[in-house]
Design goal:
This protein is an alpha/beta fold and 415 residues long. 46% of the residues lie in helices and 15% in strands. It is built from 15 helices and 15 strands. The strands form four sheets. Strands 3-11-10-9-6-4-5 form a seven-stranded mixed β-sheet, sandwiched between helices. The longest helix is centred in the first third of the chain and has 36 residues. The chain is globular. The protein starts with a helix and ends in a 5-residue tail after the last helix. The model has no long low-confidence stretch (mean pLDDT 94). Pfam families: Aminotran_1_2. This is Aminotransferase class I/classII large domain-containing protein.
């Protein structure tokens, strides 16, 4: 009797689950079709090799990689890999805990100290990603008596982090300092005012007008926050990011950045700044308090990278040379390249379908690039975002430029 009853209940449950899932599918399907019809469907190509300049896809295609955030070419660096292997044996695969319970090892403390020293700050705190660092900062620091002023084209993680806080929120027009000043003037009654910006805007390769931001911050007694994910380790005279690029080391109040791009490319993010801020984040920042600590191999990799880049500009110098070569040759060929002398080199196409077709034809030529279109970038501003690495050779870059020229002429993007 019980067996029959159980089977009946299982059938009823399956029917209810099927109905609920049918409703979900009914809601989702039109949106998926609209994405596909707009030509903005994002395909995922599967890589069968390590992340390096020459990669192999699972379909057997071999290609030169020009769209990774591997700016310094350290994702496959032998010294970095060796450090990770040694840490795996010594410290284990993971910690199964958050930092304040039993998730802190000596290498975590060592890395935070190296990050703070690299940036010339009093302290640093590690997160699972910079997305988490951005999610944990604003809610912890700001309350309803405060105001945050954010560039309208800031990264999604900054936008989402700001949404979590109770401060008054203002978006100023992209890199528009007159608009920022107006909003600073309108928020004079706030306890704290925080100007938040990307250091480098990743879709355009453009740099925040830091000098003017600092001038306005001083004039209106505001704090400054910079997300430096696309600058840390490789931008500026010594690779110390946006403030280094403007010869303003130590001028930004709060810097968030990542270990998952130039600094080895594994995972992890951080906040660096005043000791009191770091202490507060350790006590109150939810992504820090409720997320497992970074795995030892990842921490050891980043520790090694910090050693590699702190006392030399070897990787940085190669990256600058490669960036200049690509940008100059592409402009000479007739392409429109966005950005401010940054290794992010957006090749502007305009039409979303054309950008996607262009990228597909590039992979046929052995050049791995991706077309970016709405909603990642504004409508009618689709582009192929090329990213240069210190690990690219001169021949690699010339090969990529030649492929761009051939396909650009075929698709009538250039003459």
């Amino acid at each position: 009797m019980n067996s029959i009853l159980n089977k009946s209940l299982q059938l009823i449950n399956k029917k209810w689950i099927s109905r609920r899932m049918s409703l979900l599918t009914e809601c989702i399907t039109p949106e998926l079709k609209a994405i596909e019809a707009a030509g903005t469907w994002k395909k995922e190509r599967i890589i069968a090799s390590p992340q390096r300049t020459r990669i192999t896809l699972t379909n057997g295609v071999e290609a030169l990689n020009f769209c990774a955030n591997n700016y310094l070419g350290l994702s496959d660096n032998k010294e970095v890999i060796s450090a990770a292997k040694l840490a795996l044996d010594k410290y284990g695969a993971g910690l199964s805990s958050v930092r304040f319970i039993c998730g802190t090892q000596e290498i975590h403390v060592e890395l935070e100290k190296k990050i703070a020293e690299f940036h010339g700050r009093e302290g640093a705190i590690l997160y699972a990603s910079c997305f988490d660092a951005n999610a944990g900062l604003f809610e912890t620091l700001l309350n309803s008596e405060d105001t945050v002023l954010s560039d309208e084209l800031n990264h999604a993680s900054i936008i989402d982090g700001i949404r979590l806080c109770k401060a008054k929120k203002h978006r100023y027009k992209h890199r528009d300092m007159e608009d920022l000043e107006n909003k600073l003037r309108d928020s004079m009654s706030s306890r704290l005012r925080l100007i938040a910006t990307d250091g480098v805007f990743s879709m355009d390769g453009t740099v925040a007008p830091l000098l003017k931001i600092l001038e306005l911050a001083k004039k209106y007694n505001a704090l400054t926050f910079v997300d430096d994910c696309h600058a840390t380790g490789f931008f500026g005279n010594t690779g110390r990011g946006t403030e280094d690029y403007f010869n303003q080391l130590g001028s930004i109040d709060i810097i968030n950045s990542t270990l998952g791009k130039a600094l080895g490319g594994a995972a992890g993010g951080y906040t660096t700044g005043k000791e009191e801020l770091i202490n507060l984040l350790r006590q109150r920042s939810r992504p820090y308090l409720f997320s497992n600590s970074l795995p030892p191999p990842v921490v050891a990799s980043a520790n090694k990278v910090m050693d590699l880049i702190t006392n030399t500009t070897e990787f940085l110098d190669r990256l600058k040379s490669n960036t200049d070569l690509f940008r100059n040759n592409m402009k000479a060929a007739g392409f429109t390249i966005s950005g401010d002398n940054h290794p992010i080199c957006p090749v502007m196409i305009g039409n979303a379908r054309l950008a996607s077709e262009f990228a597909d034809k590039m992979i046929e030529q052995g050049i791995y690039v991706i077309g970016f279109s709405y909603p990642v970038v504004p409508k009618d501003k689709a582009r192929i975002r090329v990213q240069i690495s210190a690990a690219h050779s001169r021949n690699d870059i010339e090969q990529a430029v030649n492929a761009f020229v051939r396909i650009g002429r075929e698709l009538e993007v250039i003459n």
